Inverse folding.
């Protein structure tokens, strides 16, 4: 995913406007395709109960694939805080790239501050930025970690994602409720064993 970002620098506070610039969604074309898709699956799209379904499908997928813009505001780490900052159990949902079925669960996102700190709610926005896309869980995990490493330049980043994939749990491969866990670690969260242990203990 690519982003269009404009930085505006104040004396202390810095805000990076994060706008998804993926190709435009053609909702009309998606609606026509959804009607074709339903008919190909043997559904009668002229039935009253299905008449509006292609439109709803197109809008629902458009929403699921389009993250809301946000400002990544960072502040100087004046107090020199040097312990892990962790946002636990951030709920998220995404769409699996292989089946276009949802996978959903929680993300635990931590960083070890460098010169700057970030509002905690923004960690959830970064997860959403990459979750609203066709995804595989491993890629989502790495993208969130890489993005924070690049834009916040902390001393370390750790991301753990636990998710249930409906393409697995609904199709008999695995039992409903079974979760897949992925992680991506950077900097001292990866290299310093004490910090890594602390992060992993906090996320389990
Ligand atoms: Zn799948």
């Amino acid at each position: 995913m690519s982003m269009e970002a404009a930085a505006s620098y104040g004396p202390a506070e810095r805000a990076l406007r994060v706008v998804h610039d993926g190709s435009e969604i053609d909702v009309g074309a998606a609606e026509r395709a959804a009607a074709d898709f339903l008919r190909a699956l043997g559904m009668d799209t002229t039935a009253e109960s299905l008449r509006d379904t292609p439109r709803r499908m197109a809008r629902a997928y458009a929403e699921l694939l389009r993250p809301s813009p946000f400002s990544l505001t960072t502040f100087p780490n004046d107090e020199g805080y040097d312990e892990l900052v962790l946002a636990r159990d951030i709920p998220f949902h995404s769409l699996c790239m292989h089946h276009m079925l949802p996978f959903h669960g929680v993300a635990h996102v931590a960083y070890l501050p460098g010169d700057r700190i970030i509002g905690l709610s923004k960690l959830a926005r970064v997860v959403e930025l990459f979750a609203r896309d066709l995804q595989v869980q491993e890629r989502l995990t790495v993208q969130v970690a890489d993005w924070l490493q690049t834009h916040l330049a902390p001393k370390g980043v750790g991301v753990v994602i636990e998710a249930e994939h409906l393409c697995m749990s609904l199709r008999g491969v695995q039992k409903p409720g079974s979760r897949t866990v992925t992680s991506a670690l950077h900097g001292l969260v990866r290299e310093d064993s004490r910090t890594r242990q602390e992060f992993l203990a906090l996320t389990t």
In short: Helices lie at 27-40, 53-64, 120-131, 137-152, 166-169, 187-191, 193-202.
